[in-house]
Design brief:
heterodimer, A: about 500 residues, Rossmann fold, 6-stranded mixed sheet, globular, B: about 350 residues, mainly alpha, ABC transporter involved in vitamin B12 uptake, BtuC, 2 strands
Chain lengths: ~500, ~350
């Protein structure tokens, strides 16, 4: 039985990046230890080493003083280490019970013993106070409940150490609270939890100890009771950063984007955006809050013209663009920071120069007759990289070799550099570090100051609350409420996000 | 080593290594077929290399013959490159090439057309035949989302049987041969000398390779095609019409293959000859385009190598080595190229995960 896990002098290098440099980490029985750091600081690398997905270049892992070798996830499970990945690994059309026992099923003869599986899940739920029906299909569960199933899977395999990678990224405020309770229960049952996160507030409420990583180096380790937000930020980025964005007063002017009774269906024919209305004026930031999967993605796809709309109208700068092509919309002045940058934002296998051509290739100075003017494109790219501080070996480097934060900074730079009057910013800071986040927030505020209309779609409430002049809350494809900056608070938005309307 | 040189080495090394290893392994088959002892391995290897080299590069005339083989391979290789760059697999190059040959066999029969005009006419119909033939899978893919590979394989058979009909049963079929009548002298491409079949189509295809390179890497359309090939979602969000580019890539690819077929008849065969099975230029060219890392200029040299191998197969037989050794060499090269591509793909996938 574990009382102490120790990782000592862990080193790991990828190509030219040193992801972990002499990292020491330890975990005691029954504690929650947070690994915090910017993106690319090496948190996930360290945990992937512990989970057996990567091999360290040097360094040792030991449990209770006995050195152990972990060469694959099966080894780590044997030692009682389990991991819940950021993206869940569940079989959608299996029930909760089937998912939990998958890979280690109770059998009756040659068949799965469903009754026993159900009983196992019920027992586990009772013991850890989970509120789950073992017969529900995964596809019917909310993201928060799916996460619980993932945790159950680990508990069923008797994991003593649970690694949770960015567990709160997809949760509503209430679900985050529930998770905090679950972690507390786990601790009191003697289980240890490692949380990987870059959200400061969670660190302070959920953990007993924390380790800060920066550029692969441990920059601090302390008890949570000794930590403050400023201390943490200093250790994470090495410089003092104000967390709040300074938003000067700015009077919005005329309408620049209007969405009227918009309905959109997904590929299965279900309505995912339902009679949605929105108005965006020049010089304001409108935030669209909502739990992931309430139609935000489809709304954006409809706005940039890559998804057909079912009914309703979209009007940009008093022109009806409901049936316009993507190209026409870009020319109309719609810029978009894509929600999933690897899917729609960049072409990973192309160098930065050629990524600059996305959404630009058809117009001067990039196009010269039928040719692409690479000289001009290079100049624009150099300029963007310099001005927005995108860290890259060169502009001929394929963008896949850049860190997430730098990729995102590049996308922001490109979209802002386009001639535009509307900026759609979807999850603009998803998976980026504090430095880049701060920078991107500043850019959005600057856009607002330059009289652009900014539509900020984000599942991060902090971000929405900090930046938006008005907040539209999306729930099940429609608007569950609209709040102005001065009326907004976390509880109110949180209630609207789960579909409860204002009371009184 | 400079960064640029390192990069070139990373791209260039795998194909070159795979060619060398292919020869090393094939030498074992030479040992086997000639009942030589293992100790004579190096003798066998030397023999193999000598045959290919002396049969292909030792005299000017022999090298010209290599180019005759390389030319249609290069046409087809370029056709594949365009589609690979767009994320498509045009396995129909074979059929488009055959239809190009057929069209030239027909147009070449017409009398009384001035020389240059008839050659230009043949080139144009070749382009049209291949392009229109590729439009079938292209439009089905764009409109209905039907996989292009399946349609292409089916259209290949249609093309082959149609071609055989023209060569054997139509009114231009020569009953004394399993082919059409010879095409008019005005329809034949000028040759460099009387002792070789090498003709100006080789110059056409080299210019075309450079042109395709320019098209892919410095025009707007080339950019769009490559963008769709690498990430159609991002391309779409960037205002690029995915379906338009899919259709264009397939049609341009088909047109190049068709042109290749037409010039093969006008320059080398001088008549449409019936075939028992696919001539295989389009199929061999798959490996050629992949071995060239889908680079049109590199493709010129790979096509010459494969042309040399095809050219040497006769000499293998004379030397008592099965001519299939040539295919063994090709197959091993393909194995290595495929393995290289798969490992790159897996590496990339684990990175983006």
């Amino acid at each position: 039985m574990l009382t102490e896990l120790r990782m000592q002098k862990i080193n790991k290098t990828f190509a030219s990046v040193r992801a972990n440099i002499d990292v020491d980490f330890d975990l005691k029985k029954g504690e929650t230890h947070v690994l915090i750091g910017e993106n690319g600081a090496g948190k996930t690398t360290l945990m992937n080493i512990l989970y057996g997905l990567y091999q360290p270049d040097s360094g040792t892992i030991s449990i209770d003083g006995n050195e152990i070798k972990i060469t694959c996830p099966a080894d780590s499970i044997k030692h009682g280490i389990g991991m819940v990945h950021q993206h869940f690994m569940l079989v959608e059309n299996f029930s909760v019970a089937e998912n939990v026992v998958l890979g280690n099923e109770p059998r009756k003869g040659r068949k799965l013993d469903r009754k026993k599986a159900r009983q196992i899940v019920r027992d586990l739920c009772a013991r850890y106070q989970f509120n789950l029906d073992p017969d529900m299909l995964i596809s019917e569960l909310s993201v928060g409940k799916q996460q619980k199933v993932e945790i159950l899977k680990l508990l069923y395999r008797d994991a003593d150490i649970l690694i949770l990678d960015e567990p709160t990224a997809v949760l509503t405020p209430t679900e985050i609270e529930e998770l905090a309770n679950i972690i507390h229960t786990l601790n009191s049952e003697g289980k240890s939890v490692i949380l990987i996160t870059h959200k400061l507030r969670e660190v302070l409420t959920m953990s007993s100890r924390l380790t800060v990583l920066r550029n692969g180096i441990v920059t601090g380790q302390m008890n949570t009771t000794d930590a403050t937000v400023t201390k943490l930020v200093n250790m994470m980025v090495g410089k003092n950063l104000a967390l709040d964005v300074n938003i000067p007063y700015h009077e919005p002017s005329e309408k620049v984007l209007e969405v009227l009774d918009l309905s959109v269906r997904d590929s299965q024919g279900h309505y995912v955006v339902n009679n949605f209305n929105l108005c965006l004026r020049k010089g304001e930031i409108v935030g669209i809050a909502g739990v992931d999967g309430n139609g935000q993605s489809e709304l954006l796809e409809a706005l940039i013209g890559v998804r057909k709309i079912d009914s309703g109208r979209i009007i940009a700068s008093s022109a009806d663009i409901s049936s316009a092509t993507t190209l026409e919309r870009i020319s109309q002045g719609i810029s978009c920071i894509a929600e999933d940058r690897h899917k729609r934002g960049v072409i990973l296998e192309m160098p930065l120069v050629e990524n600059t051509l996305l959404g630009n290739y058809f117009r001067p100075p990039f196009a010269k007759g039928i040719r692409i003017d690479y000289k001009a494109t290079r100049k624009v790219t150099e300029d963007m990289v310099g001005r927005y501080d995108v860290r890259t070996p060169s502009i001929d480097t394929n963008i896949m070799w850049l860190s997430g934060g730098n990729q995102q900074k590049y996308v922001v730079a490109r979209e802002i550099s386009k001639p535009h009057c509307i900026l759609l910013a979807a999850q603009p800071t998803r998976g980026v570090d504090i430095g880049a986040k701060q920078f991107i927030h500043e850019q959005l505020v600057k856009e607002r100051g330059e009289d652009k209309g900014v539509l900020l779609v984000s599942t991060e409430l902090d971000e929405i609350l900090a930046l938006s002049d008005r907040i539209v809350v999306m729930y099940k494809g429609g608007v569950s409420g609209e709040v102005t900056r001065c009326d907004a608070n976390e509880q109110l938005i949180g209630r609207l996000m789960i579909g409860q309307h204002e009371e009184g | 080593m400079s960064k640029e040189a390192k990069r070139m080495l990373m791209i260039g090394a795998p194909p070159i290594v795979s060619i060398i290893v292919a020869f090393l392994i094939s030498a074992l088959f030479v040992l086997w077929s000639k009942d030589m002892r293992l100790g004579e391995y190096f003798a066998a290897l030397l023999k193999l290399v000598t045959i290919v080299f002396s049969e292909s590069f030792s005299t000017k005339l022999k090298f010209m013959e290599v180019l005759v083989y390389a030319t249609p391979l290069l046409f087809c290789g370029l056709a594949h490159i365009i589609c690979f760059r767009c994320g498509l697999f045009n396995i129909g190059v074979e059929g488009q090439f055959i239809l190009g040959m057929t069209s030239a066999g027909i147009i070449g029969q017409f009398t009384g057309i001035p020389a240059i005009l008839q050659v230009i006419l043949i080139m144009m119909t070749g382009v049209l035949a291949g392009g229109i033939w590729a439009l079938i899978p292209a439009s089905l893919k764009a409109l209905k989302g039907i996989n292009e590979v399946v349609i292409c394989i089916m259209t290949n058979f249609l093309a082959m049987h149609f071609s055989n009909y023209v060569a054997l049963r139509s009114n231009i079929a020569d009953v004394n041969a399993t082919a059409t009548f010879m095409i008019q002298a005005n329809a034949q491409l000028p040759r460099f000398n009387d002792s070789s079949r090498l003709n100006i189509s080789t110059i056409v295809v080299i210019i075309l390779a450079i042109f395709v390179y320019f098209f892919l890497f410095s025009t707007k359309r080339g950019y769009q095609i490559r963008a769709v090939g690498l990430n159609s979602f991002a391309a779409q969000a960037g205002g690029i019409k995915v379906n338009v580019n899919i259709v264009l890539a397939l049609v341009i690819s088909g047109a190049i293959a068709g042109l290749g077929g037409a010039l093969h008849v006008a320059g080398v065969q001088h008549r449409l000859i019936s075939v028992a099975g696919f001539p295989g230029y389009g199929m061999d060219a798959i490996a050629i385009s992949l071995l060239s890392n889908r680079n049109p200029v590199a493709c010129i040299f790979v096509a010459i190598l494969f042309g040399a191998l095809r050219n040497s197969s006769r000499m293998f037989q004379i030397e008592g080595i099965p001519k299939d050794t040539v295919y063994i060499i090709q197959a091993i090269i393909i194995f290595f190229v495929a393995a290289d591509l798969i490992s790159k793909y897996l590496k990339q996938r684990s990175r983006t995960k």
